[in-house]
Write a structure and sequence with these properties.
The chain is mainly alpha-helical. It is built from 14 helices and five strands. The structure holds adenosine-5'-diphosphate and tryptophan.
Length: 321
């Protein structure tokens, strides 16, 4: 079974990325042949600073490796090291109905946030379909917000197969309901574009401040809080603290007597220790960039071999060769 996922180098990775996509991907890597990549072509639709793209790409590589990607087993690479994917994008784009792309909420959201609606942004889901189909992927672990893109991918694959004969494997998304939508410090979905993130890695002081800024209501510490389960800090605590400890804080909050400040301090400590091994690993990797570059180069070679095979199949089916 091929498991595949990608993440854009569009900013520092946060707890939403970690629990929604990275952790599930890392847990799946021994269940089949995993291909994970850094979607640098996709980042061109929103990020225009070359130096920033280079830096972010390296950061995502370090973050992912530090969080437990198994370099012996998993194929880890940069999207643009497999240029065949752009050629397949054209073949797929030529069978993609406009209406399918016009319905994409991610595109509409980005435009409503002020991103200019250029061709790349509109065609984003077609490139994503090519990413998935070019490796004969069976399973794609992603967060909830990518579900529609997976449906588009399946529709495009089915359409191509109908027109040109069985060519592509139809992939399935894997969305973990428990972490489908990690909340940010303001209660909305945690996202780089909402300025409400808690990063996986970074400066301790800055991150402590972000945790302490999590939005709370104005009830006094003494007041019992029957809605403790919906409290933002409790929800995040459930992700990073041992289960008994998280439910202990939840019951103390429910009963009354626990102040929000103390709750957030406990959350910060739990979060900081949750990533402590990964933090050490990241520092080690950052001091050994030759190793990181070698992992990406080896990954690209393996991914490219598979991509060439599937692209050749699609070209033959469609009469290009
Ligand atoms: P962002 O919204 O911060 O720009 P991306 O769109 O780059 O994040 O998402 C990368 C991956 O992380 C996707 O698989 C996405 O579904 C997942 N993801 C992002 N934010 C969250 C979140 N708050 N909860 C769960 N998964 C998330
Ligand atoms: N669109 C995805 C995101 O923003 C990133 C991505 C690009 C991806 N290509 C992919 C995810 C292929 C899964 C499979 O998160």
């Amino acid at each position: 079974m091929r498991i595949l996922s990608g993440i854009q180098p569009s900013g520092a990775l946060h707890l939403g990325n970690y629990f929604g996509m990275m952790k599930p991907s890392i847990e799946l890597q021994h269940k089949g042949e995993a291909f994970y990549f850094i979607a640098d072509y996709h980042s061109m639709t929103t990020l225009r600073d070359p130096a920033e793209r280079r830096q972010n790409t390296l950061d995502v590589a370090l973050d992912f490796l530090a969080c437990g990607l198994d370099t012996q087993k998993t194929v880890f690479f940069r999207q643009s090291d497999v240029p065949e994917v752009t050629e397949l994008t054209w073949l797929l784009g030529s069978v993609t109905p406009m209406g399918l792309l016009e319905r994409c909420t991610s595109y509409k959201d980005k435009v409503s946030k002020g991103i200019s609606p250029d061709f790349g942004l509109f065609a984003y889901p077609v490139l994503m379909a090519a990413d998935i189909l070019i490796y004969d992927s069976n399973l794609v672990p992603v967060g909830q917000d990518q579900k529609q893109h997976l449906e588009v991918t399946r529709d495009i694959a089915i359409k191509f197969n109908e027109i040109y004969g069985e060519t592509f494997v139809i992939p399935e998304p894997q969305i973990r309901e428990d972490v489908a939508k990690v909340p940010g410090t303001d209660g909305d979905k945690m996202s780089k574009s909402y300025n409400n993130t808690i990063e996986i890695f970074g400066d301790e002081k800055v991150l402590r401040k972000k945790v302490m800024s999590i939005k709370m209501d104005s009830r006094t510490p003494q007041e019992p809080k029957p809605d403790a389960g919906q409290n933002l800090a409790v929800q995040l605590m459930k992700l990073v603290a041992p289960p008994e400890s998280a439910s202990d804080y939840e019951s103390r909050l429910r009963a009354g007597g626990l102040g929000y400040g103390d709750l957030k301090k406990a959350l910060f400590d739990a979060y900081w220790s949750y990533f402590s091994a990964a933090r050490a690993k990241r520092a080690e990797l950052a001091a050994n960039l030759d190793f990181v570059n070698q992992v990406l180069a080896d990954g690209a070679a393996k991914a490219r071999a598979k991509a060439k095979e599937v692209l050749a199949r699609a070209k033959k089916a469609s009469g290009l060769t």
